[in-house]
Design goal:
The structure is a single chain. The protein is mainly beta. It is built from one helix and 26 strands.
Length: about 300
């Protein structure tokens, strides 16, 4: 293995029938990369006509969710009254903080022909002292783009290649979507405590080592590396500030305190979380056995 690559994590694939979800972290090998405590990649998939993605209302605490699409569209609603349709090139950041409830569903306009689903769902742990911040939601539709010969990178969060995304950071975070045309190359910034890359389409190498599709490849701190592709590929770069305090994950809850998670479980069970305006009828019950996140 290249000395600059310290770990390779092959995600666990979950076949949901109409589409597949691949979960890289949390895993037995590693729980976090910077503030990223949950990394899911889903699709590409074209759902059958008349079907849809329908993630019913469910709660979160002490984290922020980041939704990024390569294809398709998803309607977001939350208990703050927020409504947004996320599309490729836009980022949804939902800060759960002290507690929020949201749903994610395919828009009605996408359903007759069958929705396309292809993208990333990640969670960011909130840092010590800010886990219980007020819930918030933002959708950023204009993000900085870095272009080099045969390479284009969208900076989703943080500062990369001299450009800074306007997306809120609770802890120092880097997140980017890198598209390489055939023959394209791009240096990977080394200014983060922890970094990882994931090939989500096509072909690419990091410092000459081939990346396997959907593997999360953790890079050594401080190593200056080059990402390149002979035939074209798409790579996600993520990472940021390392956390010294352990985070616990149970179902949709993340916290440095097990007691806080137990309180959130009781609050959801007893109906003490707020409702989602426009999506009040359905909800995902508290599971008897936690599976980290719920899908329809």
């Amino acid at each position: 293995m290249n000395d600059a690559i310290i770990q390779t994590i092959t995600p666990v694939a979950h076949d949901l029938g109409a589409f597949e979800v691949r979960r890289a972290i949390p895993s037995r090998q590693r729980t976090m990369v910077g503030p990223f405590i949950f990394v899911d990649q889903f699709g590409p998939a074209h759902l059958p006509a008349g079907t849809a993605m329908d993630v019913r209302p469910h709660p979160h605490i002490n984290l922020a969710t980041v939704t990024w699409l390569f294809e398709g569209a998803i309607n977001h609603r939350d208990s703050l009254g927020s409504f947004a349709t996320i599309r490729p090139g836009q980022v949804n950041l939902m800060t759960a903080g002290s507690g929020i409830v949201h749903s994610e569903r395919s828009p009605q306009t996408e359903r007759p022909g069958g929705p396309h689903l292809y993208g990333m769902q990640t969670w960011l742990a909130l840092p010590d002292g800010n886990e219980e911040v007020a819930p918030a939601f933002e959708q950023i539709t204009k993000l900085p783009v870095v272009e080099d010969v045969c390479a284009t990178a969208t900076v989703i969060m943080g500062t990369l290649w001299g450009k800074t995304a306007p997306t809120t950071q609770h802890a120092a975070t880097i997140y980017a979507d890198i598209v390489l045309a055939p023959g394209g190359a791009l240096p990977i910034d080394a200014e983060a405590d922890e970094r990882a890359v994931m090939l989500v389409g096509g072909q690419a190498t990091i410092d000459g080592q081939a990346l396997a599709l959907y593997d999360l490849v953790v890079l050594a701190p401080g190593a200056v590396m080059k990402l390149q592709s002979e035939t074209g590929g798409r790579v996600m770069l993520m990472g940021g500030e390392s956390f010294t305090t352990k985070r616990h994950v149970w179902w949709n809850f993340v916290s440095s305190s097990r007691e806080r998670i137990n309180q959130a479980k009781a609050d959801w069970q007893e109906g003490r979380f707020p409702k989602v305006p426009g999506d009040e009828v359905e909800f995902i019950p508290l599971p008897k056995v936690a599976t980290t996140v719920s899908y329809p």
